[in-house]
Amino acid sequence: MISIEKFALLFLLLAIPATPAMTMAADLSDLSLDELMQIEVTGASKYAQKATVAPSDVTVVSADDVRRFGWRNLADALRSVRGFYLTNDHTYQYVGMRGFSPPGDLDNRILFMIDGMRVNDNVYDSVMLGETFPLDIDLVERIEIVRGPGSSIYGGNAMFGVIHVITRSGRDLDGFEIDGGAASRRTFDGRISMGRASGKSEWLVSASHGNSGGGSYQFPDIAPGITTTRQTDAESWKRFFGKLSVNDWHTSLIYGERQKHVPTGAYGTIINDPNHQENDRFLLSEVSNLLRFDDRQNLFIRAFAGQYDYFGQWPNDNTAIADDGRPYVLGHSNVNGRWWGAESRYTAAFGSQQRLIAGLEYTSDQADYDYAELPAGYAQTVQGTTRHLGLYAQDEVAITEETSLTCGFRRDKASGFASRWSPRLALVHQSDTATTVKILYGTAFRNPGFFERINTYQVLKPEQIQTLEGVWQHRFGASMSLQTSIFENRVKDLIQTDDTGTGINGALLTARGAEVEWEAHYQKDARLRMSYSLQKVRQNGVTPDNAPMQMLKANFSLPLNKAWTAGIETQALSRRQTASSTANVGAYSIANLTLGYRPAKNSWSVTGSIYNLFDRHYSDPISIDTWIHDYYGVDRDRLAQDGRLYRLKFESHF
């Protein structure tokens, strides 16, 4: 396995040619890096502003990045971003950010949105990545990664950041598009999309479907000598997306479902029994209108609704459990979440010196949890209803021509919880056209979610976070940039689980770190992005589980000729603690390679990707499964990850 020191050497070698002395492209086929950095983002403040002046540390991932590097889903895209890392337990994928991703965590401290619609469900407060995410990656125009607390305008969940996915428009699609892919493990997927625009109206509809026969695994800790069948890792998914805009009215609908067979024997289930399934379904809808009073003032109103359904099924052999007497138990869990609400948001610009935003948001949600065992045994039914009201305001003032100050706050009241204030301060200074300095302060909170409240015997306190961050960014001409940032996060009353799986409020958690990122565009549209992250996370005086101290990443793409392109990405993580900080999984580094062919007319393309190019063996930390401990006397704290995988994809546009 390549050590992290060797990967650091590779990082430096890649950086050597990326110096100001190198001749840069004078005529890029797409936008220059300087132009890309001036693209407006909406995730930081709920209105369009340049990423360089937004009151947050923002990274933008484009649809072109998705194509160049062969990313299959949102998890692949986030894995390449500075400060982020993914964990896979062969059921779901979980995102970590700046050293925070405790095993068993449900991604409920990052807010995910699609075109401004909240995706986090109201049962677990989570978003499942990979094929569970309800939007096809090929419908993405860009992904805005906004680091730092966002509760001052978004409320709960936006503790560590906001991931805002912006979809393609019917105007850009302008026709009919199909694609199909085949990959390792008998995996096939396809998509059909159509979109048009006429005058002030446009529409887009898309449907996609995929399935995987699954892989074969060995789990010697609980089933020595047994190799699982492919059927016990099978997976299928379906997605639909549609949106329509007429004048300033807009409506959209998103639907996604995934069925997954689980091969790991989690929760003490029977190895090679295909009855172990975990299935998810999302439905999101919205209708909105933008009322324009004049060129400087507008009122945005929207109504939204969402639905999340989960079905789990677990086969267990209970013959080894004393006093049970049931040889085969099939546990069923049904989870249903429904929410609806409305928001109104007023935005006003006062010359070029000030911009004000103020809004009111109301949400009502209901969650149901049902669990039962067959043959007849334990059963549980829990229901809950919560209403949320949020009032927020943010004022961006230009102190001088070079310096702006952003002040924001939000007050949230949820039934059953005390009111919460979430302030935000950001000082942004541009000393010249190439250099930007940001000093950012913010606080955020998260009330215990529905599942956390029913999974405890005590009253849980809301989580609170305080962050302080400094960002320095400099552009070397139109084609190179360097960014560094330092940060400190302090999380109080972190909601965790104890050794029995019961929810508790943990001790103070602190994270301090620094990040550096270099990006350059070369001649003939070659592109390079490299980043290094260093973070030190502490709780109770020790490093918590799954908190890597170092991360190194590099993405390099280049044209091989007029039709062929190549994209290679490399990622490395230092070792991570596991098993309640008593053991660790080793450092690892992997590389992915994508080759693409697109003829001059751009009407069709073929891409081939190899993931984990050198077939490296590594593991991810997972939460210790108390069921496996009870059934087998084993404390499983890690799972091996997949080796080399292949994918071939064809796309055509009419």
Q: What CATH architecture label applies?
A: Beta Barrel
Mean pLDDT: 88
Strand content: over 45%
Q: How many structural domains in the coordinates?
A: 1
Count the E strands.
Answer: 37
Radius of gyration: 24 Å
CATH superfamily, by name, is TonB-dependent receptor, beta-barrel domain
Q: Roughly how much helix do the residues carry, as a percent range? A: under 10%
Largest sheet: 22 strands, antiparallel, barrel
Helix/strand structural class: mainly beta
- In whole angstroms, the N-to-C terminal distance is 45 Å
Number of helices: 8
Shape: globular
List unreliable stretches of 5+ residues. 4-29
From the 3D structure, determine the CATH topology: Maltoporin, Chain A
CATH top-level class: Mainly Beta
